[in-house]
Design a protein that fits this description.
Length: 125
């Protein structure tokens, strides 16, 4: 390796260098930038697809297999009832480094979920 090449290699691995996961983060941000406008369009149309997508949407509804419908309903059901609360408690207990932080993370996650559920219920009534 020449002296110039080794200097470049040292500069790339120095304190100002981007970590290897930076390109993945950029891809995720780009995808979010594409998904967010689509979600906004669907939200403003109350869930109905835009006119350009109507034919594809109708076709997919007519041709969906019963097993896939059952799977989708099962996945949807995991977002209701006791499952999300239990999942948040487990995630909080895993995330903390010591007992105090684990309990704090679990309590904070539960508080945020309860706050979201209360605010969603209040805004619909």
């Amino acid at each position: 390796m020449t002296e110039d090449a080794s200097a470049v290699a040292r500069a790339r691995s120095g304190p100002g260098a981007l970590p290897l996961h930076a390109p993945l983060g950029a891809v995720l941000v780009a995808l979010l930038g594409l998904i967010a406008p689509a979600a906004l369009v669907l939200a403003t149309r109350h869930g109905s697809p835009p006119a350009l997508d109507r034919a594809g949407h109708d076709w997919s509804l007519r041709h969906r297999p019963p097993g896939l419908v059952t799977t989708a309903r099962a996945v949807t059901a995991t977002g209701t009832g006791v499952f999300p609360y239990g999942t948040l408690v487990i995630a909080g207990l895993i995330a903390g480094r010591d007992t105090r932080r684990r309990l704090g993370y679990a309590a904070g996650a539960l508080a945020l979920l309860l706050l979201r559920r209360v605010s969603a219920t209040a805004s619909w009534s």
